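Risk register update: the risk that structure generation would not scale has been downgraded. Supporting records follow, first protein first.
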Amino acid sequence: MWGVDRDAGVKCMKTDLERDAEGYLFQTDEWDEDIAHEIAREEGIELNETYWPVLNFIRDYHQERGITPDVRHLISFLATENKCSKKEAKVLVFKLFPYGYVKQACKIAGMKKPRAWSTG
């Protein structure tokens, strides 16, 4: 499904969107739900209705502030939305994205890979 161009990184064969060598989109505004499904499949995740509030929060936060939210902001959002503790919300994040917030959630949401970041 993915082709490698040594100079450009990874390209999505279906949509011809360029991604870096680790699979993050170069242009966050090229993202759509079909791309999310394709990246999620690559990560071994089958998206369902549980994932979309997380992905939409990441996208909306980025659009409003120009930066991708740190995981603590997502945890606070999920705790409020699900009327649960932050500890329970953190468990949910890592249940949905077992290889981590940056590695999976941010990538599936179409964010660029951060240079350095606290993930937990």
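Supporting record for the second protein:
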Amino acid sequence: MSVPTIRLRPFSDSSPDHANLLGGSPRRTIHDPFCIVVWRFKTEAGRAEAFQALCDEAAGLVREQPKCLFQRVTRKGSDFKVHVGLEDSYGVLSHISSFCDVLRQARLLGRYEGVEIHGPAGELAYLRDPLQAFEPTFFERDGDQLV
């Protein structure tokens, strides 16, 4: 599978409402429309450490993205998951378009196992069409906030 190109389009009046993302209290409360992207990879024999180094290098780039809330890598043997929390669906599209170079490098070290997109129904609806080339698995999130 080649890495598709994502074309960003501006939000229209019919796009999900992205106002009031963060609560005003000192304790940060993340409200809808935040989304989580989970990239899944399986590395080839003997390449797990090189893949981990690529993840560490990419973490700096991901954290600099303006709509990035968090980024973490989890690993079990040769299986890796890269978790990226983003403010909204536009942040997801922006992240994926800038993550394509990392995906190309990752494919040299292992196998792309898929991507999961977690978020509220309105955000997922906006993402289905532009992300179809990645064949994502969508998970609708219950509730409206994460504390």
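Residues 89-109 form the longest helix (21 residues). On this basis the risk owner (M.S.) recommends closing the item.
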